[in-house]
Amino acid sequence: MIGYVTIGTNRFKEALQFYDELLSLVGDKRLWTTESMAAWGVSRNDPALCITKPLNGDTAVPGNGAMIALKVESVSQVDAIHAKAIQLGGTDEGALGSRGDNGFYAGYFRDLDGNKLNAYIPASRA
């Protein structure tokens, strides 16, 4: 259902490096880049994560209550993405671990602009 999600950035060059390194941990690559926008994913036919400088020229701000969840294959990938995000200048937004009693495992973080993301594995894989 989801083709792509887009989040704003005020630090475009730094965000390119942040997401290049972060998403390479799960096999995603930068699919394309313009002067103000870029996308990562497996292919142009699969869901993608995009960043952009706001087209109206206003400051990019994180959405209150908005979050992007990155589904990965293993607990070790969740741990690696969370650690890499912090290493690259992101901030911790929730300790790594299981949520609830259904086996859902996640690590929450914010990127360089304060956008909230998490890496997770579904309960069926935990």
Key descriptive features of the protein:
about 130 residues; alpha/beta; globular; four-stranded mixed beta sheet; 8 strands
Structure description:
- The chain has 126 residues and is of the alpha/beta class.
- It has 2 helices and 8 strands.
- It has a single domain (4-52, 67-121), classed as Roll (2,3-Dihydroxybiphenyl 1,2-Dioxygenase, domain 1).
- The protein has a 4-stranded mixed β-sheet with strand order 1-4-3-2, covered by helices on one side. Strands 5-8-7-6 form a 4-stranded mixed β-sheet, covered by helices on one side.
- It is globular.
- A hairpin with a 6-residue loop joins strand 3 and strand 4 (48-52).
Offer a concise description of the structure.
This protein is α/β, with parallel strands linked by helices. The chain contains two helices and eight strands. The radius of gyration is 14 Å and the shape is globular.
